[in-house]
Structure formats: C-alpha cells, structure tokens
Write a structure and sequence with these properties.
The chain is of the alpha+beta class and 179 residues long. It has a single domain (11-51, 78-177), classed as Alpha-Beta Plaits (2-Layer Sandwich), CATH 3.30.70. Helices cover 32% and strands 16% of the residues. It is built from four helices and six strands. The strands form two sheets. Strands 4-5-1-6 form a four-stranded antiparallel sheet, sandwiched between helices. The protein has a two-stranded antiparallel ribbon with strand order 2-3. The model is unreliable at 1-13, 18-37 and 54-60 (pLDDT under 50).
C-alpha cells in the first residue's frame, strides 16, 4: 500500500506481507528468499486469471501513489473467466498437485477470476509451490480446450506466523466456496 503523500510503501511493519516478513524475521533462519522462516506456519496465496485485474481498472489500481490509466488495450486475448466446470477442473488439478508435491493444502477456493489457497509451510519456496499449482491448472484446462494465457504472472502471498492467523485465512478462503 502506498502512502498518498510520499508514494512510499507503508507495509514494512505488516508481518503478513513479504516486505513485513523480512523486517519481522531478519534474525531468524533464512530460506532461499532471504526471509526468516522460523515462525512461519503457512501462507495464503492469491493469483488472478489473465486480464481480470488490470492496472487502472474500476477497482482503482494504484502504483507509486498514482492511479494508473486503463491497460485493457494491452491485452493480447480476452480476459479469462472460469466457468463452473473449469473451476472444478482447476481445483482438482491443484489438489492432485499438492498431494504429488507433498504440500498440505488447508483450503482452496477457485473463483471465476482468481484462486485462493492456504498451504502449510513445508520448506519449499512458495514461488515453486505456486508455479507447480498454476502449471497443473493450465495443463488440466488444456485438456478441456483452453489455450493461451490463463493466469497472471504474479501472485499475492500472506504469511501466517501462528495457528490462529492460519485458521483465519482458512476461514476467509472457505467463505469464497460458499459464493
């Protein structure tokens, strides 16, 4: 989150963000990202489908304190919105991949324009876990005829430093399954 006046990020002290986790854990054991993982019990990760969360869209994308103009003209194909069958296919692919990778998946919600997962810390780099899950979803969707980009490149990651925060994230994700 950017400060309106300075344009600088304000999340340094937020322990659930990557930047905040660096600050909080700088004296702990380091993982491959240079982050201290001594207190991490899990993560909530969210990623979006291609073209559904653009800079400058009506939800007010802000970069460096400035609202960015719409980028719809930069899309190389239509935005991806998953239908009910595609959501089920992606969910099953992620669940299968989690088992294959020996990653404990505490919660998953596959929505039409984004995916939420909550996973336990396993010693694996979270970017590798996300990459495997995204690739599994793409491979499964290709079997149903979907081609081209499905996911955005990046993802949002929230660290959970105790069981209470992890269970709060699980509850949040599970509420998405009721929609």
């Amino acid at each position: 989150m950017a400060d309106k006046q300075s344009g600088k990020r304000k999340d340094k002290g937020n322990p659930t963000t990557r930047r905040g986790a660096k600050q909080r854990n700088k004296n702990n054991e380091q993982d491959g990202n240079g982050l201290g993982m001594g207190n991490t019990v899990g993560y909530m990760v969210t990623w979006t489908t291609y073209g559904t969360w653009l800079q400058g869209d009506y939800r007010g994308y802000v970069k460096d304190g400035e609202v960015i103009k719409k980028n719809e003209q930069r899309l190389v194909k239509e935005a991806v919105r998953l239908n009910i069958t595609e959501k089920q296919v992606v969910r099953q692919a992620i669940e299968d991949e989690a088992e294959k990778q020996n990653v404990k998946l505490d919660a998953i919600a596959v929505c039409s324009n984004h995916v939420h997962i909550v996973v336990r810390y396993s010693g694996c780099k979270i970017e590798d876990v996300v990459r495997h899950f995204k690739q599994a979803g793409i491979a499964a969707l290709k079997k149903y005829g979907m081609t081209g980009k499905v996911w955005t490149k990046k993802y949002d990651n929230r660290f959970c430093f105790d069981e209470k925060s992890l269970q709060a994230r699980v509850a949040y994700v599970n509420r998405h399954n009721d929609e």
